[in-house]
């Protein structure tokens, strides 16, 4: 990597993922972000390989010699190249659909390091997971156990299972991302846990592996996790007394990250030693293996979403807007969760007038905003970076309003690696079937597609 002795470290990335030059320009590793925008256009997701690797290494280092398995939560960011990086570093995968298992295995993941959660596992999902030989199913209801057992008997393949417990613990997170409260759809309620294990132990094609739990996302301290350990330890110990010895305890993910420079992330170096100490103190099974399922805390701060200002616009009541080419179709979290992402110019614009702006996209929805009331000095044509965008960004992107999915690239030092081929609206209509009802169309399909293709990439600068 380039010498960064004269650069200012960036507050929202670990290690050397993102930084600013002495002139204030934002870089990803050795590459100026504006160079990437010129080459690939915007909206554009940019990931730092060093940032991803550093986060995974932080979890491994925190565990030390303790028996453990880190299973990356695929739902956070599931592009194949990212999953290849995860697999390359020896991590496993936490999957919540057959499609996510497919992605993980196509990326080179070890099926023996795959855990399968999710409340609605289909017969096809279960059959694929069994045939692939995954580590275990995290069972989320008694009915699911019945379905898994039926599929095992049909295929003649044993299923390795854990029970996902709903601990009824308030992790003090936003209601949209709380998964451990009693009224959540996730996990098995406390009164059903022991009976479900006892039932599973009697089924000929079921092999009991462990116990699992996930209390939510953006958890700010270790305290809710420690309460979760106490709940799970009670079950592990009681099951052992009944002759059912578990091999691992899966404590889920959800460690908080910084979306604002003033926020403090829950670092693996703080969380993992506390969990290890609690498990060894409270669980009677010696050296039980500890699983964790980080997603956001691996990928969020390792990426930005680049977007270009299209127009500045005044509204009523002194409301000012910056209309950009990214939208809720690229980053939906602000629209559905009210989530905050720091938005800043890639290159400072000292001559631009500073004003309070709502950063909004072109999608035909009033909720299409990326950030409100931001104090920025920008003009039309300026490039903005939306920070901490790696988790639940591209993974939740859509083609609403017939907008193509954004491009993604990975920066590895001075190398830039495209993670997908560019998509246009032409790709969105290619697989659709025509009814043939319009006998005399105003323009032929070929002519329309040709005109659209000619217009791509046009500039008036």
From TrEMBL:
Signal peptide from the UniProt entry: none
Domain spans labelled Orn/DAP/Arg decarboxylase 2 N-terminal: 51-300
InterPro entries from the UniProt entry: Ala_racemase/Decarboxylase_C, DAP_deCOOHase_LysA, De-COase2_C, De-COase2_N, Orn/DAP/Arg_de-COase, PLP-binding_barrel
Annotated substrate binding sites: 296, 333, 337, 365, 392
N6-(pyridoxal phosphate)lysine PTM positions: 75
UniProt record, GO biological process: lysine biosynthetic process via diaminopimelate
Reactions accelerated catalytically: meso-2,6-diaminopimelate + H(+) = L-lysine + CO2
UniProt KW Amino-acid biosynthesis keyword: yes
Family of the protein in this entry: Belongs to the Orn/Lys/Arg decarboxylase class-II family. LysA subfamily.
Designated name of the protein: Diaminopimelate decarboxylase
Protein's gene: lysA
